[in-house]
Amino acid sequence: MTNFLAVERALRTAAPYDLLPAARAALAEHYGAVHVDLLLADYSTKVLQSVADGPADPRQVPIAGSPQGRAFDSRERVQMVGREEAVDLHVPVTAHGDRLGILSVRLPVRLSEEKVAPHVVDEIIAVADIVGHEILVAERDTDVYLQARRASRLTLAAEVQWHLLPGRACARKEYEIGAQLEPAYAIYGDNFDWAETASTLTLSITNGMGEGIQAALLTSLAVNALRNARRAGIGIADQAALADQALFAQYRGEQYVATLLLSFDLDTGRVEVVDGGSPQLWLHRDKSVEHIDFDAQLPLGMFEETDYVTQEFQVVPGDRLIFVSDGVFAALSDKGESFGEKMLARAIQAARLLPAAAVPRAILQELSAYLDLGAGPEVADDALVLCLDWFGRGVRP
Fold first, then answer.
1. Strands lying side by side in the sheet with 35-41
2. Mean pLDDT, rounded, for 57-75
3. pTM, two decimal places
């Protein structure tokens, strides 16, 4: 534990841009590490890119088929790969359940041992968690880690949208969330947001009309208006009404935002819903998958002073909720058939064994294959998938 505390202190006191050199020096001194690398997942979660190489030509490791990728996607906390007189530990770098990348640490082992002591593995896992939290703090003051996530240049609209997001995943004892936007480097109108208190989870799925930077600015105003109302401590019907007023005041009904807004009671599983447009909810319960319909209300900003009302439904432990934008369920094949009509329920079933964080990418890959887009996911229209696994306040299923 003394070694772990020394590494933790080195990371806490490192300059924001200097986390990897600090980790390398401390892990070498206190654990004998002979190689340390920090790889971050790119925006499309296809590759892991090394922070060490800088943004010009980063070393890339594919998530599919690599030990680092298996560590990133797996429910396990570490993947070990044996080498001659050494072992590589690939450990997810996380922050509140959001997997940012992988910390790879090569430790020497004697041939008579052939493995790393369990307490050392546990301490390296804890170091990776500290790295994840320090990255989030460091991003206030440096672009190093944001640049390391870019396999290509983001459009300005995509820059706005990714900056708005709370993260790409979140894990609590009551639920786990995973979400993804595509095309990752050119998204413009789709967005998601969440916030938790001791007793509630508020979730929004948002789809701003239009294209490019105009759609991104529209969605940015909607998301921030919803956050402003939520932080005032009011219910989701009034949150929707205040955001509606803010959008109408700016655009006079010429542009508007489709939004699905939900509030989960963490104690009971009761959910309040305001359905203001196109995002859809699908429920995977036991072995069945069904689309959940709500009474549709007007999108935010379409008319002045719209009144919104809540509806209710109940989630139970073991439920999986899948939220999709119209870029998913309404995407058309070359035969004119929509993905939602034939394939969405099948894709949800196929992903049933995956953790929530991996489900959106799996569904978007199915969408890409359905649209015959080749190696994906890459889609022409905005496509959003969010998965929420509900455990409730009890024993996980």
1. 60-62, 47-50, 35-41, 98-108, 86-95, 79-83
2. 92
3. 0.93
